[in-house]
Specification:
Protein name: Methanethiol oxidase
Membrane topology: Peripheral membrane protein
Pfam families: SBP56 (PF05694)
Keywords: Acetylation, Cytoplasm, Membrane, Nucleus, Oxidoreductase, Protein transport, Selenium, Transport
Structural class: mainly beta
InterPro entries: Se-bd, WD40/YVTN_repeat-like_dom_sf
Number of strands: 34
Strand content: 35-45%
Largest sheet: 5 strands, antiparallel
């Protein structure tokens, strides 16, 4: 699936984001499946799913690679190399990096030898991360143009918040040490994206690992245990140069996405707590600023933990041509598509509800809603009632299909969607209108992780073997 075979002397990935849009259709995807917090004493595993409509095993799990340990909480994954190394013919995208959010292990999986049946290549034990970096709770993995791998962290070995970065050697996968200069870690960590042409990296903030690991308590927000800033780094100096406080409306800024165009000096960040999207950008003075450009209104409800229910934006992404922004509202249960041709004024052009906490017939009654006239119907697909709501999303290279999974983080899943723990999460596919905008569920596609051999599992982030819009960075 990688373009290397067609490209001859080129390296992995694609020369430009627009070239990537012309890449082949995805045939398989990888996604981590979690058993921590489900009551099933089995290791998390990496699932390979067939997404080729012409295949006899379409929308089925065709391989499972169990981890060698229990209770890792696999979360997000990344590559040993990507389009940032496109000009280097010695590089090959053949290893998937799987950081564990709770155990702090980092698994390196061989997806090159047999892409349909990955196997374990190396395990980086937590002690290496603790001793060499004084970091823990690794989250986002990105490959660098240097050939190294960089992984953001959320904490220190004691479970306190600490936003630093782990560097792995791209060949041996040994821990090299910290990316950031000593004394320059941010207060909180989570996601990051870099843009070398502007000598910048932006990182985001979730919360204190030992606090959020057990579940969400609104009192922890008031106690200062969750972040509300984005952090600006000097890419060549490895120093924290600016912290932009997004205020109350920017509570828990999670996924950050620069525009894919490597010349662009702007991007978006989705903030979970108030369901807002901020646009960040370079100012004429040369520093960085952020403005709120999307606000999803809360719904006034009865029968829920609080009287106001936020949408809880948990994942966002941009199409490779930077035309559309997508995000999921994990509590309300919808995925939205915005035209961001004018980045300052996103326009809602598509929306689809796929479960959520406000469906008809559930325990929650919506008493005031600025957007909907009635509560959405529960989602039943192929006879399966979907418990949970859209969470992680991934867009096909051509922008015409979105794959979606429903698990956020095992302890939070258990708290907000207890039926999903019992019934398992699902993977769905949405067809996208890339002309006028619009989203429609593909009723022929369902991966039911409630029917896994070892019991119902929680499926998380989705990756394509040839790279995708949330893993590849162009330099």
């Amino acid at each position: 699936m990688a373009s290397k075979a067609k490209c001859g002397a080129c390296g992995p990935g694609y020369k430009t984001p627009l070239d990537a849009m012309k890449g082949p259709r995805e045939e398989i995807v990888y996604l981590p499946c979690i058993y921590r917090s489900t009551g099933i004493e089995k290791p998390d595993y990496l699932a390979t799913v067939d997404v080729d409509p012409k295949s006899p095993t379409y929308s089925q799990v065709i391989h499972r690679l169990p981890m060698p340990n229990l209770r890792d909480e696999l979360h997000h994954s990344g590559w040993n190399t990507c389009s940032s190394c496109h000009g280097d013919p010695t590089k090959m995208r053949n290893r998937l990096i799987l950081p564990s959010l709770i155990s702090s292990r980092i698994y390196v999986v061989d997806v090159g030898t047999n892409p349909r049946a990955p196997k374990m290549h190396k395990v980086v034990e937590p002690v290496d991360v603790y001793w060499k970096c004084n970091l823990a709770n690794p989250h986002t993995s990105h490959c660098l143009g240097s050939g190294e791998i960089m992984i953001s962290s959320m904490g220190d070995p004691s479970g306190n918040a600490k936003g630093g970065f782990i560097l792995l050697d791209g060949e041996t996968f040994e821990v090299k040490g910290n990316w950031e200069k000593d004394g320059h870690a941010a207060d909180f960590g989570y996601d990051f994206w870099y843009q070398p042409r502007h000598n910048v990296m932006i990182s985001t903030e979730w919360g204190v690992p030992k606090v959020l690991a057990g579940g969400f308590d609104p009192a922890d927000v008031n106690a200062g245990h969750y972040g509300h800033s984005i952090n600006v780094w000097d890419w060549t100096e490895h120093t924290l140069i600016q912290t932009i406080d997004l205020g109350e409306d920017g509570g828990i800024p999670l996924e950050v996405r620069f525009l894919h165009n490597p010349d662009a000096a702007e991007g978006f960040v989705g903030c979970a707590l108030r369901s807002t999207v901020f646009r960040f950008y370079k100012t004429q003075a040369g520093d960085w600023a952020a403005d709120k450009v999307i606000q999803v209104p809360n719904k006034t409800v009865e029968g829920w933990a609080m009287p106001e229910m936020p949408g809880l934006i948990t994942d966002i992404l941009l199409s490779l041509d930077d035309r559309f922004l997508y995000f999921s509202n994990w509590l309300h249960g919808d995925i939205r598509q915005y035209d961001v041709t004018d980045t300052k004024k996103p326009k809602l052009v598509g929306q689809v509800f796929l479960g959520g906490s406000i469906v008809k017939g559930g325990p929650v009654t919506v008493v005031k809603d600025e957007e909907l006239t009635c509560q959405p119907e529960p989602l039943v697909i192929k006879g399966k009632r979907v418990h949970g709501a859209p969470q992680m999303i991934q867009l096909s290279l051509d922008g015409k299909r979105i794959y979606v999974t429903t698990s956020l983080f095992s302890k939070w899943d258990k708290q907000f969607y207890p039926d999903m723990i019992k019934e398992g999460s699902v993977m769905l596919q949405i067809d996208v209108d890339t002309q006028k905008g619009g989203l429609k569920l593909n009723t022929d596609f369902l991966v039911d992780f409630g029917k896994e051999p070892d019991g119902p599992a929680l499926a998380h982030e989705i990756r394509y073997p040839g790279g995708d819009s949330t893993s590849d960075i162009w330099v």
